[in-house]
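Give me structure tokens for this 150-residue protein.
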Amino acid sequence: MDCKASKQEILERLPHRDPFLLVDAITEQGEDWIETEWHVPEDMDVFRGHYPGNPVLPGVLISEHCFQSAALLVGQLTGPDAAPGIPVLTRIEDARFRRLVRPGQTLHTKVQQTESLANARWFIAKVTIPEGKVARLQFVLALAEEPTHG
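Here you go.
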């Protein structure tokens, strides 16, 4: 299923905002999978301190990109009749990093839901750049109650 989404549609589906919104586009989406892209800005502040002179995107931000991509899918999977809540990370089961990501590169990510139980969803994410595989993660998101304000 081809399901390109604009930045505005992503903003409507995720609570994240710049500078911590790490998904630029949904390139395709199926019933239990999603493909996303994130162009890593060359001027990200993190590069000032993460190996100055030899900047490398931290693995934790690659992971967060995967979690945000899965949250976009969970928003579609839950539907209008589902229990309210926001997707939050509850477990990282496995994370393997194979290649460095530099400023200006674009991550291509496929996230597949593998299982669900009550409010929990299990995922496998695979991240690539044109030069090859970057990372593979297994993790769980759960729908948490939204805080009440009052």
